[in-house]
From TrEMBL:
GO terms for molecular function: RNA binding; tRNA pseudouridine(38-40) synthase activity. Gene3D superfamilies: Pseudouridine synthase I, catalytic domain, C-terminal subdomain (3.30.70.660), Pseudouridine synthase I, catalytic domain, N-terminal subdomain (3.30.70.580). SUPFAM superfamilies: Pseudouridine synthase (SSF55120). InterPro entries: PsdUridine_synth_cat_dom_sf (IPR020103), PsdUridine_synth_TruA (IPR001406), PsdUridine_synth_TruA_a/b_dom (IPR020097), PsdUridine_synth_TruA_C (IPR020095), TruA/RsuA/RluB/E/F_N (IPR020094). The lineage of its organism: Bacteria, Bacillati, Actinomycetota, Actinomycetes, Mycobacteriales. The gene is truA. This is tRNA pseudouridine synthase A. Residues 21-94, 171-275 form the Pseudouridine synthase I TruA alpha/beta domain. Residues 324-334 have a biased composition (Low complexity). Keywords: Isomerase, tRNA processing. GO terms for biological process: tRNA pseudouridine synthesis. It comes from Corynebacterium meridianum. Substrate binds at Y135. CDD domains: PseudoU_synth_EcTruA. Formation of pseudouridine at positions 38, 39 and 40 in the anticodon stem and loop of transfer RNAs.
Amino acid sequence: MKDPYPTTEDSGTVRLRLDLAYDGTDFHGWARQKPADGAEIRTVQASIEDALSKVLRHPVRLTVAGRTDAGVHATGQVAHVDVPRASLTTRSIDDDPSNLVRRLARLLPEDVRIHRCSFAPDGFDARFSALRRHYAYRVTTHPRGALPTRARDTAHWSKPVDFAVMRESAEILTGLNDFAAFCRAKEGATTVRDLQAFTWHDISTPAEPQLYLAEVTADAFCWSMVRSLVGACLAVGEGRRPAGFTAGLLDERKRSQLVPVAPANGLTLVGVDYPDDAELAERAEQTRGVRVLEGEEHRARGKGCPERNPYFEAAPGATDEGGARPASAPGGAG
């Protein structure tokens, strides 16, 4: 399949890859949007597009790996943008797009930062070429709530939880399943996903007791899926839902009203994986295919989660049920 956004000299267009981070607290999500009165709503996409358009003096449109909801953060988000090659030359970017990092830093608000800007390899699509997305969810059940210095990225769950039960409730969900019970309905969209890892860690410290971290990896996620997965486990952990509740939800084929959606502020997109450059276009074509369940199987499977997961290994203080931090994230059934 030919890449619809070529990056050749002849086309006059070049594709850039942006690696970025943001504090989602004060944004209405990733996607650019306008209300009925025409006033601009503050979104991550709009902030970056406006700054980039100003630098290049050319309107741009970003495509992102994961369209995060309002209040959700990112430390490892990936996007691409197609720009006229001439605009890079006239704006003294030339063959070094990393120069954009410094220029954008002067224009972007403090809660958005571009880590890296580079030429994208042929066939790269930030959304469709991705193999998997990695999310982390940070939550405390301590009565006082999160520390003031972590309140923006740590959710508060008002009831204490049984950690072992919560962890079991998560592990049973891994694999290729229909997660309709955990997803908000979207017409024409599939809810079949390959949940490659879903693990809870007790990361409590004397300063932050009753603190837990969920690490969630899948080939893709549907709307509100991660927060619903987390919310279901927390509900079982506090005893509001019975043991086996999450396993039973896999038999549902529509959104379950029994599944609570965990608060947005605890969720962070920490990384996105891509295949080798030679496989980018093939992966994008495969991902565009609509998934259809035939019994318990599916024709479009994601590649399994890697044994070692650098996105989660860097998480400070994460422990395995109070013990040493595991060297690798467990791989889910693929």
